[in-house]
Amino acid sequence: MKLKINRLTFVLIIAVNITLTAQPELEIHPNQIEFEDPFHRIENAILFNDGDVAVIIDSIIFNEALYYKSFNIPEVYPISILPGDTIAMEIILSNYFNVTSLDTSDEMLFYYSNGTQFKELEIEIEFFDDSEKEGQITGKVVNDSVSTEFSKVYLYREGIYLYDTLRTDAGGNFSLMVHEGDYTLAVEKEGFYLTYFNNVLNPYLAETIEVDDDSVTNITVPIIRKNAAGNSVSGKVIDFNDGYPIDRGVIIVRKGKHDPTKMSIGPFGISEEPTTHAALINPDGSYEINDILQPGYYFIQAFPDFYIPSYYNSSANYPIAYWQDADSVYIINQVIDKDVFAARDSAYGAGTINGVVLINSQPISSGEIIVLAQNTSNNTFYHYNLTDPAGNFGVTNLPYGNYKLFAQTLGSEIVESDVTFTITQQNTAITNAELNFVITKVNEDEPIADSPFLFPNYPNPFNPETNIMFFNPVRGHVKLEIVNILGETIQTLYEGIAEQGFFNHKFDGSKFSSGIYLIRLITEKNILLKKAVLLK
Question: What does pTM read for this prediction?
Answer without folding.
Answer: 0.78
